[in-house]
Amino acid sequence: MKLHINHAVLAALLAACVLPAWAATAAPSLYEQERQRCLDGRTHQDQRTCMQEANAARDQIRRGLLRTEDAVTLAANALRRCEVHKVEADRKACKSMARGEGEVAGTAATGGVLRAYTTITVGPVPAASAPTATPQ
Fold first, then answer.
1. Cβ–Cβ < 8 Å for 38, 50
2. Whole-number Å distance between alpha carbons of 15 and 23
């Protein structure tokens, strides 16, 4: 009897085994961070709603339905979103703001974050005209 291995099925089985192990370790630490933010009042929600959201997110992570990204991936995604700008100067300003440059005002809790990045461009200096002699 010959054994045929379907690589797609094998990959799915491996993912099913590995993902819950990852979720089991990631969920408690993320949950504890979110829970603490709820208890400290550092969210835009009332405490009851915040705790419900934290519990729901923890359960979704455990089921493998909610993905979390590391800081490097998030930063790369922020820079990639700047590619929508067609004008080079706009794209550069977007990338600078994505890296945290510029000024930031407001918070998500107060309704929004306003980011401003100022670029000063010096134009060409006009040619000096020759001084004209005035008759005396």
1. yes
2. 12
The structure's pTM equals 0.43
Specify the long-range contacts of residues 61-70, CB closer than 8 Å, at least 24 apart. Answer: 61/23, 61/26, 61/27, 61/30, 61/31, 62/20, 62/23, 62/24, 62/27, 63/23, 64/19, 64/20, 64/23, 68/26, 68/30
Q: Dihedral of the CA atoms 97, 99, 105, 109 (nearest 10)?
A: 120
Residues whose CB is less than 8 angstroms from the CB of residue 43 and which lie 6 or more positions away in sequence, other chains included: 37, 50, 109
Q: Where are the domains of the chain?
A: 7-62, 71-104
pLDDT in tens, the chain (136 residues): 444 444 443 344 434 444 344 444 455 677 888 899 999 998 888 999 999 999 998 888 888 887 767 788 888 999 999 999 999 999 999 999 999 898 988 887 788 888 888 888 888 888 877 666 666 6
Q: Are strands 103-105 and 114-116 parallel, antiparallel or unpaired?
A: antiparallel
Could you give the CA distance from residue 66 to residue 5 in angstroms, rounded to a whole number? 30
